[in-house]
């Protein structure tokens, strides 16, 4: 009678133990990562506060607390030339359509101060209410991760328009979006 070598016997026993152990083990639930909060899209109503710092008073405010009329929110950085171009175009539209919308300018600059905002706005003839969001907390709530970005909110807090990016030849497209949402 032939004997199986010891290694073969041990291997067979280990494989059987493994197979039977897996088959008989209770099913374990997979751990799932917490779901990312849903970003607001065009047509969604914003249900949470958008907390930012008022650049003049230094106080925290809800950006959408008082939407008595449609509101344009522009996310920008002072060192961004595309941001400045978009701001000038938005300012032109607002000047040509007085009273149609309120303009909130949200700076996402890390080291900005209210004095720097005021100087920047005066040098570039930009009029609107300035807010600070140096930790960029508002943008990601709308899937916005770069500047410039522009959003329009209706008085009932609905996102009417969301634009990301700006180039010098697209002012007419910006005006079309503003006209469609606000006129």
Word description of this protein:
With 183 residues, the chain is α/β, with parallel strands linked by helices. Helices cover 31% and strands 19% of the residues. It has 4 helices and 7 strands; from the N terminus they run αβββαβαβββα. The protein has a 7-stranded mixed β-sheet with strand order 2-1-5-4-3-6-7, with helices on one face. Strand 1 (51-54) and strand 2 (60-62) form a beta hairpin. The longest helix has 19 residues, at 6-24. The chain is elongated and about 100 Å long. The mean pLDDT is 84.
| First-last Cα distance | 98 Å
What is the arithmetic mean of pLDDT? 84
Our Rg estimate from Cα atoms comes to: 28 Å
User: How much helicity do the residues have?
Assistant: 25-40%
Uncertain stretches: none
Per DSSP, the total helix count is 4
Q: Order of helices and strands, N to C? A: HEEEHEHEEEH
Structural class: alpha/beta
């Amino acid at each position: 009678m032939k004997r199986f070598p010891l290694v073969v016997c041990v291997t067979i026993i280990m494989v059987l133990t493994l197979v039977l152990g897996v088959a008989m083990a209770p099913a374990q639930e997979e751990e799932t990562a917490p779901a990312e909060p849903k970003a607001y899209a065009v047509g969604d109503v914003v249900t949470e506060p958008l907390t930012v710092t008022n650049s003049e008073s230094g106080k925290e405010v809800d950006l959408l607390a008082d939407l008595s009329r449609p509101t344009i929110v522009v996310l920008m950085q002072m060192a961004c030339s595309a941001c400045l171009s978009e701001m000038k175009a938005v300012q032109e539209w607002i000047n040509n359509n007085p009273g149609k919308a309120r303009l909130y300018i949200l700076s996402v600059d890390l080291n900005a101060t209210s004095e720097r905002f005021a100087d920047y706005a005066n040098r570039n003839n930009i009029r609107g209410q300035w807010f600070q969001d140096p930790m960029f907390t508002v943008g990601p709530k709308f899937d916005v991760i770069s500047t410039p970005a522009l959003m329009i909110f209706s008085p009932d807090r609905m996102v009417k328009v969301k634009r990301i990016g700006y180039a010098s030849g697209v002012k007419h497209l910006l005006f079309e979006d503003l006209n469609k949402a606000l006129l």
